[in-house]
Amino acid sequence: MSPRVPRPSSGLFADPRPIEAIGDLFANVWQVCYVTPDLDRGMEELRDLFGVENSTEVPVEGATFMKGGKPVAWEPRVAMGARGGMIIELIEPVSGEVDFEKLLGEHGMSFEYTILIPDRARLAYVDTTAQLGHYLELCQLQKADTDFFSGLIAESA
Q: What is the domain-level CATH number for residue 141?
């Protein structure tokens, strides 16, 4: 077992600084998300290749997937895991819409999709493929999810 990684004195989910430049989106990064065609295989590879042994499939019931502010059909499978620090999320799009304001607009970017999980989280996907080669997922969490993620990290190696 590896030694525990010390937590910052301000807490893992400290309030982020104001978003005034695109680079501010990277402040307080606590999660990386990957889209996979096979969640079970992805969880196995996280465990066997990367040592993320506690990857757990999480429920998504009640979540609303939105494009341009309008709900669209969406069915994913989602898993999360950690190893003493950053959370790794895997998403397997199963069916429905699965392709992934002002400051973003000034830089030619926009929220392509948003997700609302009642009483848990609001997520937005920003198309940064031209700049970074991938989408960014931005999360605003409520206490239920920060408690879940804090426990996931605490239970990891």
A: 3.10.180.10
Residues 109/119, Cβ–Cβ less than 8 Å = no
Residue 64 domain-assigned? yes
Pick out the chain residues at pLDDT < 70: 1-17, 27-28, 98-100, 157
Q: How much is the pTM?
A: 0.64
Bridge partners (DSSP) listed for residue 116? 64, 122
Asked if residue 9 belongs to a domain, the reply is no
**Residue 113 buriedness (CB in 10 A; 0-12 / 13-18 / 19+):** buried
Q: Check if the beta carbon of residue 27 is closer than 8 Å to that of residue 18.
A: no
Q: Tokens for 140, please give them.
A: 């605003």
Domain boundaries, position 32: 27-154
Q: Are 141 and 80 in contact (CB under 8 A)?
A: no
